[in-house]
């Protein structure tokens, strides 16, 4: 599905040049909130790491450990910091806080 939406940043005129953050998202394939969150990330030209955890209880437990116990999908991490799910992602965007967050490079380990 990722290839299907690769044209979105080109259509919108958005370039991924300013995106330096490491973005990770835990998803289920048929989850509408996951699809909506990925659509916003694609629209912005974000290259993200997707963990598809459909039916994988061990992966879901690992996600919950990172997400302060939250077990719902999607769970989105920017530079290893949990930002929550789809609603939180769109909230950051509507408040103008998502783009600066995406422009922040990850801290070197």
Structural commentary:
With 109 residues, the protein is α+β, with helices and mostly antiparallel strands. The chain has one domain: Glutaredoxin. The chain contains five helices and four strands, in the order αβαβαββαα. It has helices at 8-12, 32-43, 57-66, 86-94, 98-102, and strands at 23-27, 48-52, 75-78, 81-84. The radius of gyration is 13 Å and the shape is globular. GO terms for molecular function: glutathione disulfide oxidoreductase activity. Keywords: Disulfide bond, Electron transport, Redox-active center, Transport. This is Probable glutaredoxin slr1562. Has a glutathione-disulfide oxidoreductase activity in the presence of NADPH and glutathione reductase. Reduces low molecular weight disulfides and proteins.
What order do the strands of the largest sheet run in, or round the barrel if closed?
A: 2-1-3-4
The CATH superfamily name is: Glutaredoxin
Q: Do you know the CATH topology? A: Glutaredoxin
Helix-residue proportion:
25-40%
The top level CATH class name? Alpha Beta
Brief digest:
Belongs to the glutaredoxin family. This protein has 5 helices and 4 strands. It has helices spanning 8-12, 32-43, 57-66, 86-94, 98-102, and strands at 23-27, 48-52, 75-78, 81-84.
Structural key phrases:
electron transport, Glutaredoxin_subgr, Probable glutaredoxin slr1562, Glutaredoxin, 109 residues, alpha+beta, 17% strand, 38% helix, GLR_AS, 5 helices
Topology:
Blueprint: H1 8-12, E1 23-27, H2 32-43, E2 48-52, H3 57-66, E3 75-78, E4 81-84, H4 86-94, H5 98-102
Parallel strand pairs: 1-2
Antiparallel strand pairs: 1-3, 3-4
